Every structure is written in C-alpha cells, then in structure tokens.
Amino acid sequence: MKIPKVLQDVIDNFHKLPGIGPKTSQRLGFYLLRVPESQLEDFADSLLNLKKKTFLCSVCKNVTENEICSVCADGNRDRSVIMVVEEPLDLVAFEKTGKFSGLYHVLHGKISPLENIGPDEIFFQQLLKRLESGNVSEVIIATNPTMEGEATAMYISKEIKKRYSDKIKITRLGMGIPTGADLEYADDLTLTRALEGRKDI
After folding, report:
1. Ordered DSSP codes for 27-83
2. Phi, psi of 31, deg, nearest 5
3. Is residue 197 within 8 Å of 174, Cβ to Cβ?
4. In this prediction, what percent of the chain has a pLDDT beyond 90?
5. Alpha helices of the chain — where are they, by DSSP H?
6. Among 164, 87, 96, which Cα is nearest to 123's?
7. Domain 5-52 of CATH type 1.10.8.420
8. Domain map (residue ranges) of the chain
9. Ranges 10-19, 167-176, 190-199: which has the least confidence
10. What number is the average pLDDT over the span 22-44?
11. Rounded to the nearest 5°, which phi and psi values hold at 153?
C-alpha cells in the first residue's frame, strides 16, 4: 500500500526525532489521523511556539520563557556554587531531587573531537565569564560519565585551574552514576548520592 505523501511527510519527520524508529513513526502518523482537528491544531501550535516563545537564559543557558530562568532569578539560591551540566534535561533531573540549592550552567553539549565539537561549540566561554565576578567558590562538574563527558570535565577543570588556581574548588560527581549512563535517566536517590559523594578534581 502506498502511503499518501502528506502522511508520509509526517511519518518521516517523526522518524528524525531521537529514539523514534520507523514503526513508532508510522504508529504516531496514523494515530494523528484519528485525533480531532482541534486537538491536532493545539499540537501544531505548541510545536510552533516551542521555537517562538522559548529562549536560553542569559545567565546559565537553561531553556526559559523569559530572559532569565526561574533558577537564576531565585534569590534564595546559593550563588557561590555552580553545577555544570551538559543539557537542560540534566538540570531538570537535579531539580527534581530538591537536594541542590546552587546555580547551574548548561553547556548544551560536550567536547567530542569525532563530531568536530570543541570548547567553542558549547557554552564554555560563558561559564568562564560568570566566574570573573569572583563570587563563585565551587564549580561542580556534572557531565555524563561517558568518554566525551569525562574529556569535557577534564578540559573544564584544567581551564578553571589555570585561571583561578586556589580560588575556586572544582568537584566532580561521586559514586552512584554508572559509567556510560545519562544523567537524565538516573533516579533521584542515585543523583542525590552522586551529589553528596562528589570529589575534588
């Protein structure tokens, strides 16, 4: 059976999303055919607004609807501690634990020479600018425990030490996160233990 082009286009676009294979793409495409038109319009509007009405926080690069995200705007946060994460989803995972009261910095990626991603392709320079204020006493590096995540952590640590030597303590998440795992999939207890067990690097 030949699938109508307009439906095939929808299926193809679903298939471009991470973690969605050809069968799931087809199921989603055919499912949307049965959805009431008003619900489909709401779905389409929400997708369009995703780009139009979200921004990167001018301070930490988290995804937000305002110039500054709710974490950075919260006057009760400990501004002397910054946790560096790869993606906004990692920030969301730590916020769910309720155990971290400092600020974040979202890199939006990791250093990966094989993919031609260097320090200039992630928000690393913006982190260094934040440290210029002199108000930060600790940087927690919470990149994923993968080869690229470890390389990113080592690079960040080296560059901060080069500029701030003994002024800023640099720690890495401790035990609890298995090697090769993604932080966004870790449960609250694992993340809490990793945070509590962080070590100097």
Report:
1. HHHHHHHHS-HHHHHHHHHHHHHHHHS-EE-TTT--EESSSS-HHHH-TTSEEEEEE
2. -65, -40
3. yes
4. 74
5. 5-15, 22-34, 37-52, 70-73, 88-97, 124-131, 147-164, 188-196
6. 87
7. yes
8. 5-52, 56-200
9. 190-199
10. 94
11. -60, -45
C-alpha pair distances (Å), 85 with each of 80, 123, 181? 16, 11, 14
Q: 129-139 burial by CB neighbour count: b if 16+ within 10 A, else e?
A: eebeeeebebb
pLDDT, averaged across the chain: 90
pLDDT digits over 176-195, tens only?
A: 666 666 777 777 767 776 77
| Domains 5-52 and 56-200 equal at CATH topology level | no
Residues making up the chain, counted from first to last: 201
d(CA 184, CA 66): 24
Please tell me the predicted confidence (pLDDT) of residue 90: 95
pTM: 0.79
Tokens of 82: 């910054």
CATH class of 56-200: alpha beta
H or E element in which residue 106 lies: strand 102-106
Q: Are 201 and 142 in contact (CB under 8 A)?
A: no
Q: Where does the pLDDT of residue 15 fall: very low under 50, low under 70, confident under 90, or very high at 90 and above?
A: very high
The gap between the terminal CA atoms of the chain, to the nearest Å, is: 59
Give me 16's structure tokens: 């471009």
Strand pairing category for 169-172 and 138-141: parallel
How much is the average pLDDT of 14-35? 94
